[in-house]
Amino acid sequence: MQINRITISGLPGSGTTTIANLLKKKLNLQYIYAGKIFRKMAEENEMELLEFEKYCEENPEIDKKLDEQQEEILRKGNVILEGRLAGWIAYKNKIPAFKIWLDCEKEERVRRIVEREGGSLEEKRKEMEEREESEAKRYKNFYGIDLGDLSIYDVVVDTTNISPDVVMKKILEKIKD
């Protein structure tokens, strides 16, 4: 099967960036991280990430702008798009894409975030929970999307106790099906 659009989604710390980078090398596709675009928007608004997330709860035009950019990226093709809503954007706009969701237990995600960014487990758990709560609220209110609904994905992989190589193997097997 020829795949020229892949979306990769998951909660913070689930391994989406790691896997997206591995897929980029393996499949020789361009890789775009929607989170980087969102963070740049926060910087442009001179806000910390969590503050910007809260601001977006009352200002849906920001999420809409980001979603339009993601839709445009997906329509062009030849891309791996990493973003929490990337799969949903492909699905809702009927853009053919191979959609991946990476799942991972909360405590392992927190551990990975601390390993990557530093800080304490308690601090990062609190930040992660606040961020996820804000996102879930926005996605439900703005789009009627429940991130817990994984039915749209072509493959869901629990990354909690497996290496990135094993995750890649599972994904590539599904892509070949």
Verbal overview:
- It is a single chain.
- The protein has a 5-stranded parallel β-sheet with strand order 2-3-1-4-5, sandwiched between helices.
- By secondary structure, it is an alpha/beta fold.
- The model has no long low-confidence stretch (mean pLDDT 92).
- Helix 3 (49-58) runs parallel beside helix 7 (121-143) and helix 6 (106-117) crosses helix 7.
- Helix content is 59%, strand content 14%.
- It has helices at residues 16-27, 34-44, 49-58, 60-76, 86-92, 106-117, 121-143, 164-176; strands at residues 5-10, 30-33, 79-82, 98-103, 155-158.
What is the topological layout?
Blueprint lengths: L4 E6 L5 H12 L2 E4 H11 L4 H10 L1 H17 L2 E4 L3 H7 L5 E6 L2 H12 L3 H23 L11 E4 L5 H13 L1
Parallel strand pairs: 1-3, 1-4, 2-3, 4-5
CATH topology: Rossmann fold
- Specify the CATH architecture: 3-Layer(aba) Sandwich
Total E-strand runs: 5
**Apparent shape:** globular
Q: Structural class, from helix and strand content?
A: alpha/beta
Give unreliable regions as ranges: none
Report the radius of gyration as a whole number of Å: 16 Å
Q: In percent, how helical is the residue content? A: 55-70%
Q: How many domains?
A: 1
CATH superfamily: P-loop containing nucleotide triphosphate hydrolases
By oligomeric state, this entry counts as single chain
Counting DSSP H or I runs of 4 or more residues, the number of helices is 8
